[in-house]
Design a protein that fits this description.
mainly alpha; 15 helices; two-stranded antiparallel ribbon; two-stranded antiparallel sheet
């Protein structure tokens, strides 16, 4: 079911989830008669909901904990530390020194951080009972007489961010789960990458290093060398160590513009790079994933000072280990302790406005991975791909839901029929593009040469150098199954 964004129900989504909850209760308590085709007999199938996969805004709608305001982090709950930046007009989530070992030297370092000492302890991990105690007087979402107008809950009076008690707590096993709602690593990577690129390249509208953020530094009385200098009605911003110069921006953009990557590794990132304006725009989530994990350490090496590059490289390594297909507990424990140090290093260099809630959330990702295992089964990529397929089915913009339903049923029918056609080419028995068989006159015994390529645009003749010829030769030897026995 797709609910339009501007008219979405928000916290009242529980009304739409009631049929799902009833079916999940039946699957847990009663079971459903199911046919097992392997043994040709029926059996009782039981099922449980492990967790929800959603972006950060939907996290608030499903869990009941609002992901906005000064208590936006649902994992830290009431113990999250944030402060209001009056000039930038936003919440800042810093103070990651509380996650460091006790008596760490940075805890008394006022000058390098926000001008205060830090002796606090990290927020404790809440149990299900703790959450139930907090929401015991929130039974369902609070609605006004007009169900389309939701009544706002006063968080100031309650001193928390709970809007409701989630409908998922009606499931008998929900309160015993260690992880109920996943933090979406895909969107966290996207937001962090946008923050980093926008700030180091000083992209207008995306950088966190603005006049207002410099005025916040002045109010906090830290980093005197970065305070804005007023000349008449305008402010002049001193150069920061985390910002690339004009020549460095050109080098950075030229690297990405000339980048060649293996087929299927990423999209063509050079399309999003403007050499003339020294600007990167239009990056998709997967582009940010590739940039953050693989390309930033290559592009920034030698361009920025070590104090700035080091935490960015550590952040890249953190997500690379976290996103691996195989996770090791000792590695997760190592990056869990290291991410606090990395975020503290970032605090020592980047402006406070850089630290929105998305930059804070990585502090919790390693713990979630230890509970729920690899993130590839818990992030939004497969869901976004499915939503993309559903949106392609829309033929009538005035009736999107009906178009999707009609197209989905037609697709299911065609899929079912195609399984009974053995002598007709369908998408299930069709060879993929790397193994399609070409015409008989050009057919080769080696599958890698079975299909002729086609030019994109006007063709041109290119003479290979010896090293290029050897690379092509080596590629064939390593990727052709017919050569492997030899």
């Amino acid at each position: 079911m797709i609910i339009p964004g501007p008219k979405g129900p928000g916290d009242a989504i529980d009304v739409y989830l009631q049929p799902l909850i009833e079916e999940l209760q039946e699957l847990w308590e009663v079971g459903v008669e199911t046919f097992d085709s392997s043994v040709h007999q029926n059996f009782k199938m039981y099922a449980a909901l492990l967790w929800t996969i959603n972006d950060f805004l939907a996290y608030g709608n499903l869990s009941g904990w609002s992901t906005k305001g000064k208590l936006a982090c649902p994992c830290c709950n009431k113990d999250v530390f944030s402060m209001r930046l009056n000039n930038s007009i936003k919440q800042c989530f810093m103070h990651h020194r509380c996650y460091l070992p006790i008596n760490h030297k940075w805890q008394i370092d006022k000058k390098s951080f926000d001008g205060t000492t830090e002796y606090g302890l990290p927020p404790k991990h809440l149990t299900s009972q703790d959450i139930l105690d907090q929401v015991k007087d929130h039974e369902g979402v609070i609605l006004s007489k007009d169900a389309s107008k939701k009544t706002k809950v006063s968080h100031d009076n309650r001193r928390d961010n709970w809007n409701k008690k989630s409908i998922f707590f009606r499931l008998p096993y929900w309160s015993s789960l260690l992880l109920r709602h996943n933090l979406d690593v895909m969107h966290i990577e996207k937001n962090i990458c946008d923050n980093v690129l926008g700030t180091i390249m000083n992209i207008k509208g995306k950088t966190k290093d603005t006049v207002k953020s410099r005025l916040d530094l002045e109010v906090m009385n830290i980093r005197l060398e970065l305070h804005p200098i007023q000349k008449g009605d305008k402010f002049v911003l001193p150069a920061a160590t985390y910002t690339l110069t004009h020549e460095e921006k050109h080098t950075f953009c030229m690297f990405l513009k000339q980048l060649k990557v293996p087929d299927g590794f990423s999209s063509n990132i050079s399309h999003y790079v403007s050499i003339k304006e020294h600007k990167i725009s239009g990056l998709k989530s997967h582009d940010c994933h590739v940039l953050l994990q693989h390309l930033l350490p290559l592009t920034l090496r030698g361009l920025l000072p070590k104090l700035v590059c080091e935490p960015l490289f550590e952040l890249s390594l953190f997500f690379k280990i976290l996103g691996a297909k195989t996770l090791r507990v000792e590695e997760l424990e190592q990056i869990e302790s290291q991410i606090a140090i990395t975020l503290c290093k970032l605090e020592m260099n980047f402006p406070p406005s850089f630290f929105d809630v998305m930059v804070h959330l990585p502090i919790h990702l390693a713990l979630e991975a230890k509970i729920a295992e690899p993130v590839q089964y818990r992030w939004m990529y497969p869901i976004e791909r499915e939503l993309y397929e559903l949106k392609q089915l829309i033929r009538n913009l005035s009736c999107p839901e009906g178009s999707i339903a009609e197209g989905y049923i037609a697709k299911e029918c065609m899929t079912l029929c195609s399984r009974y056609f053995t002598n007709i080419e369908t998408k299930f028995n069709r060879l993929n593009r790397n193994h399609d068989v070409g015409s008989q006159e050009h057919k080769s015994d080696l599958l890698i040469f079975s299909q002729l390529g086609r030019a994109l645009g006007s063709g041109m003749t290119w003479d290979l150098h010896m090293d290029e010829w050897e690379q092509a030769h080596l590629f064939v030897l390593k990727n052709c199954d017919a050569v492997q026995p030899f």
